[in-house]
TrEMBL record:
Domain (KIB1-4 beta-propeller): residue spans on this chain: 71-342
Protein name, entry field: KIB1-4 beta-propeller domain-containing protein
Source organism per UniProt: Artemisia annua
Superkingdom, taxonomy of origin: Eukaryota
Amino acid sequence: MEWSEMLPELLDVLAHKHIVFYEDYPSFAGVCKSWHKAALQTSKGNNGPPSRLPSLMLSEKKGYSEFRDLFLLSNDTIRKIRLPEAYGKLCMSSCGWLVTVGDDHASQLVNPLSREIINLPKIDTFPRFLETCNWDYGIRKLVFLAPSSLVVVLWGCSGKLGFCRIGESKWTPVEKGWRSCIYDITYYNGRIYSFDGQCHIQACDVHGKDPVLVDVERLPVDLYDYNRQDIGGAYIIGLDDGERKTLLVVIREGMFDDVDDDLCEETYKTKSFQVFEYDLASEKWSKVKDLGGKTLFVGYSSSFWVEDTAKVIKGNCIYFTDDVFVLYRGSKNGGGRDMGIYHLCDGTIEPHFAGRSSSDLSPPIWLQSI
């Protein structure tokens, strides 16, 4: 029997079994017309399977409300997905999901591939939100804990911790123990860890009845003198290194030109990154000079790491997106101009996306492979 003569029912089973990643489409669909048709059927009603590696969700285009472009790091191509649910909204990502916030204060979890939508509480249910914040500053960082139906966020202009469980009608703030504006959060080893503007690591058990931020450790000034540095942002990522459990703190050092507030014009760019490791068992800090085959992804939205054995993603590097929202909000140029790949070995920076994609609301963000 010829390949083209296989029963449609059998081809459907084969397509669903073998098209695990988006990159599998060309080889399957290229066999013949009947196989191409079966491949198309696998994504009927949704946007198809995930990419093999992280992708960059580009900013929305004006008048282009139905679709969004994903830049695939796996093969440097653009994948178009249907995502009208995100149009005109603030977007963050975590574990392959999006959280969107609209000007009506409504927030939703959106799976950009299956297009499943889960309603979350309105962001104005945070206490005193309307007195201190606009809707487009509502959520800045996100951690989605799917097994426990928990969404943890950094909210408001002050960078505080908050959370909700799916189905609840309001967000719960975590204000006990808060020191200063939190840069970033991560879920690791059963707890939420944060890194703040005073270079403190704090931890929070969001599964408990009365969550509170507790001090873990502060980045020593003899290791990094943050009083003398121009910190353009900071990130925290949990990392299993064999039997050791560690937290990586990634500090982004920026270079800023004068800002003209009247014209909303500015020039800024990332100059360098420094990476520090905190061992949870020994309670000791060290500077990281080599990530081995691991790669860090940081920027606006969530932070994470991958290890690509196929070497498509460059190891010992930091892939970053624009994160200076205090400058690009209201700017005529928008955010999305300060992106690239930082090589930890020699401090050089190269682009990961050669095109232009900017927005003063939702600049490009990383989308993890689900």
